[in-house]
Amino acid sequence: MSGSENPSPAPGFSRRRLLATAGAAGAGGLVAGAAGGAVGASLADGDGSGSGAGSLSLASVGASAVPFHGAQQAGITTPAQARTVLVAYDLEPGADRAKAAALMRRWSDTAARLARGERPDADGQVGLDAGPSSLTVTFAFGATLFDKLGLAGRRPEGLQPLPPFPGDELDASRSDGDLLVQVCTDDALVGFHAVRTLQRLARGTAKVRWQMTGFARSPGATAKPMTHRNLMGQVDGTNNPKPEAPDFAAKIFVGDAGAAGGAAWLRGGSYVVMRRIRMLLDDWDGLDLAAQERVIGRRKDTGAPVTGGEETTPADFGARAANGSLAVAENAHIRVSAPEFNRGATMLRRGYSYHDGFRPDGSPDAGLLFLAWQADPRDGFVPVQQKLARGDALSPFVRHEASGLYVAPPGCPEGGYVGQALLDG
Ligand SMILES: C=CC1=C(C)c2cc3[nH]c(cc4nc(cc5[nH]c(cc1n2)c(C)c5CCC(=O)O)C(CCC(=O)O)=C4C)c(C)c3C=C
Ligand SMILES: [Fe+2]
Predict the structure, then answer these.
(1) Which of 265, 338, 378, 424 has its CA at 20 to 30 Å from residue 219's CA atom?
(2) GO biological process: what's one of them (predicted)?
(3) What span, in angstroms and rounded, lies between the C-alpha atoms of 404 and 370?
(4) Could you tell me whether strands 270-279 and 348-349 are parallel, antiparallel, or unpaired per DSSP bridges?
(5) pLDDT band, very low/low/confident/very high, at 56 (cuts 50, 70, 90)
(6) Does pTM top 0.80 for this prediction?
(7) For residues 278 and 367, is the Cβ–Cβ distance under 8 A?
């Protein structure tokens, strides 16, 4: 049943009591846009004003809602929420196209309802009390799904296995998968609730292959909205492509060329590369500040290029130090990865930090769940990673431990479901 057919709000969370307030803060230079608008609601007071004695207001973080339906799926250009759970699924043996289509409809309907703050059927009540907390659920398909469903002829050309890269130490059991579900939210309990609900709905059709959990800054944790910091302490996301740039959509979403052949269903979709990248933080901590800044080519405190200015000042890649050497080193991460040195290769990086305890040697099992969205990985992640793996000053401090390439269909309208043009067509 779709959300529009059964718009039952969570107790104490009626639409009537939703009051528009300020917009959510953008992260990584992204604007909140329509999908990032926040709404505030009062749960316990009678008139919805939130001002009654003893009343409790649902804070803007909890009440903020991101629409599920739209031309593109939410969770791609949405400013990064505080939490993510990535869950990859494999189809159960014998699951055919009809079963996969039914699952995508169940998942889409439920994700839309959860994103509005409504409770799913047969709810375990974990989601009581909280608002949607900017929940987004984003669905994507791996190459193996097309083969298993007899849809090899409609597999888009960009969905080839990623080539091996020098230095890869990939764990197959935490890589790939027929389906990827990215759940993002500002509240961990809301995230668990969504993940658990979707997993229950998959029974009989798909089973979990792997799961990873990541985190970013919580809204309000910094004095003003700012680009996130990663676990190495760097400001990370500064030079992401900006949604307002004229070529943004062409670089990030699949256009006519990428939707050629049997892949017309993909127009408006996007490819996502997942890399679980462990940071060798004990080694990194052994570098002094100047050396750390040389590795990236940016200052740690402000995120500004080492050639001067502020965070958003373009790096001066031609500048030389007093001794004549390049100010942004030949192997500095921003020089090796920048679009201007990679034939314009562009991707929207929307990664999350992870920390899964400590390894037997005492080093943190921590790093970056790197997630990069692009119109075609052959013109985005692949050439850039080929270069980084060979000549990036950051490489000695990171290990790529898991990998996946998936294609996210375009968004769906109310009454439709994600992937419908492929699975029904
Ligand atoms: C293949 C693509 C990339 C991988 C893998 C990658 C890993 C990685 N990056 C950082 C930290 C930073 N990256 C920064 C910039 C940056 N990184 C990539 C690509 C990959 N990074 C690009 C395309 C860019 C933008 C370059 C530019 O145009 O200037 C930065 C600087 C700030 C920013 O612009 O975001 C940092 C810091 C880590 C720690 C990491 C692996 C763990
Ligand atoms: Fe990077």
Answers:
(1) 338
(2) iron import into cell
(3) 10
(4) unpaired
(5) low
(6) yes
(7) yes
